[in-house]
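User: Need the bound-state model for flavin-adenine dinucleotide:
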Amino acid sequence: MADPANSTSSPFDLVILGAGSGGYACALRASQLGLTVALVEEDKIGGTCLHRGCIPTKALLHAAELADGARAGASHGILTTFEGIDTVALHARKDKVISQLYKGLTGLIGQAGIEVVTGRGRLVDASTVEVDGEGGTTRLSAKTVVLATGSYAKTIPGVELGPRVMTSDQAMDLAQIPQRVAVLGGGVIGVEFASMLRSFGAEVTIVEALDRIVAAEEPSISKHLTREFKKRKITALTSTRVASVEADDQRAVVHLESGDPLEVDLVLVAVGRGPRSEGLGLEDAGVTVDRGFVPTDDRLRTNVEGVRAVGDLVPGLQLAHRGFAHGIFVAEDIAGLDPTPIDDVIIPKVTYCDPEIASVGLTSEAAKGAGKDVETVVYPLGGNGRSIIRGTTGSVTLIREKDGPVLGVHMVGLGVSELISEAQLAVGWEAHPEDIAPLVHAHPSQGEAFGEAAMLAAGRPLHAHA
Ligand SMILES: Cc1cc2nc3c(=O)[nH]c(=O)nc-3n(C[C@H](O)[C@H](O)[C@H](O)COP(=O)(O)OP(=O)(O)OC[C@H]3O[C@@H](n4cnc5c(N)ncnc54)[C@H](O)[C@@H]3O)c2cc1C
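Assistant: Bound-state model below.
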């Protein structure tokens, strides 16, 4: 091991490796609680979510919604036309949103007195992190080390990235909207990009190996999304595997194991995200690694005392707000506040395609698998005034335990992302539909659809039949 050129022996209460959603949330909460913190980051504070994930994609998806609004203007009596996409202005707007949030975040971190150490870190042992930065190597000693190095975009073995074959990292900044796109993978990132690129004018084909897109959701949601995508001329080839991809600077051809090859201008590889644990020195420090992920107990402790892990590196949902929750939990646990462990089941999930998907809690299959006696009601958005005004269809599916609490809520339709907060309170607080049914929902709002689903489940429907 190289002798550290620079070193600091001051022991921090916490040294956090990675300043994405999990790492920076942990740092901020720990400093509020009076702990001393060093935050190690090799790139930019904010991580995937702020720079290459949630925020840029949602800025682009908002622009996509405006493009569709311009197309739909005439049907509402507004004289608009869709002329095309100015990608320079598109990215300038997206980048402005990122910069504003980045400025706010770096300001918060600075004011909190967190020591930011720039460079690539690795674990030397349970209480020592070595950082290779521009000024040389620094050693930081810590009472607790938090691993928060996140995830990277996976590719398909044998498929090389290039000007016509990209992951979401590069597709975020397309200089031109391609005419024909193949999206490999029909999960969250795949369907969000498919939806966005279609709104921007591309012809889109999704290739998915499983028998349905968004396979982690209720089957009825996959069915609805497939139908709505079809109306938007987005093709979803399910139960279809990619054999190989050929590409040059001008075009790409996706060869499938069955069916005709797809000749396209862009291939977006969206086959999931893998853990960023290589080169972190985990094995040397004795930290157990499972297919690259770092398993933890419910208090986010690894097998090595004094080493915790948070966010995408920990097996489970890969979501920014799970990272935040993990980070806060670890800070509070170390500070002795005895916080409640984070359960993935009550973490809300939103997919921002058109139509949107929002869900929380158990699917009907998982609820039955857990031995629950389950009742399911479906309230269609076709009965909800605000949804009709907005021109969307879809539904709120509420799953309850017979005579018991709400176990899961699964929604699809434009605007349902904003209904998830109430649904998550219901599931998180184990509310019974009978508790929710008497609560008055504003009219006309899409939130009424959730209220109506609860009324239906409680056996006292208004705009539906029991
Ligand atoms: C296209 C896309 C869209 C997404 N949309 C959403 C969404 O809408 N909502 C949502 O909740 N989630 C979304 N996500 C997922 C979300 O971005 C991640 O769940 C979240 O960023 C995970 O946070 P993290 O802290 O675990 O890791 P990351 O955010 O990946 O942060 C890890 C940080 O560690 C740094 N790092 C890694 N190794 C080292 C090292 N050795 N030394 C120093 N620094 C290191 C990295 O540079 C990085 O900054 C999206 C992801 C993508 C790719």
